[in-house]
Amino acid sequence: MLIVDDHAVVRRGIRAYLEVLDDMEVAAEAADGQEALTRLDAMAAHRELPDVVLIDLLMPKMDGSTAIGLITERFPGIRVVVLTSFGEMERVHAALARGAAGYLLKDAEAGEVVAAIRAAARGEVFLDPVVARGLTQEIVSPPAGLGALTSRERDVLVLVAEGRSNQQIADELVISERTARTHVSNLLRKLRLTSRTQAALFAVRQGLVPPRG
């Protein structure tokens, strides 16, 4: 296993607990996503890749969400389990979309962490009970209106309401024009609107921007 967290005390604590278990072996540690990829490349060269990577989300240099996507793309045989302090649904969706096989909060019991790692190694998905409840609630009562939008989609909505083009939105948010266009399409779909004009009116009604003119 590879443990990825920017706090050394967290890595060492997890390692100390796992290494007393007969079926667990910690092969290495990394302080951020970039270091994790470097270590995995080195391990792959010696054909010693771990079965599971346990990773935090908020780290310097390369965050966990980005690293998850790259790890699952480069090393499809590795399962990735998130262990983080952040349980917002936006972060959960991003991690799972990039290929995470588990999502735990750092207040989880040690036994839950072990269960998640074992489940991932078996090809199963393990979710923190709080996260699982959140996902279930979304299915039963999907968010509507502004609550359906991610923080980035809200930013894009404001820019749309200000009359910005997709390219101008891309320049403002330092993203590609294609990504800006995708965000616009997604927010229109979630708000059940058919045009940028309707989106602008919605933003005004919600108080996100003042009326134009």
TrEMBL record:
Residues 142-207 form the HTH luxR-type domain. InterPro entries: CheY-like_superfamily, NreC/VraR/RcsB-like_REC, Sig_transdc_resp-reg_C-effctor, Sig_transdc_resp-reg_receiver, Tscrpt_reg_LuxR_C, WalR-like. Gene3D superfamilies: 3.40.50.2300. GO terms for molecular function: DNA binding. SMART domains: HTH_LUXR, REC. The keyword Membrane does not apply. Residues 1-121 form the Response regulatory domain. One of its GO terms (biological process) is regulation of DNA-templated transcription. The lineage of its organism: Bacteria, Bacillati, Actinomycetota, Actinomycetes, Kitasatosporales. Keywords: DNA-binding, Phosphoprotein. The modification 4-aspartylphosphate is found at D56. Signal peptide: none annotated. This is Response regulator transcription factor. The keyword 4Fe-4S does not apply.
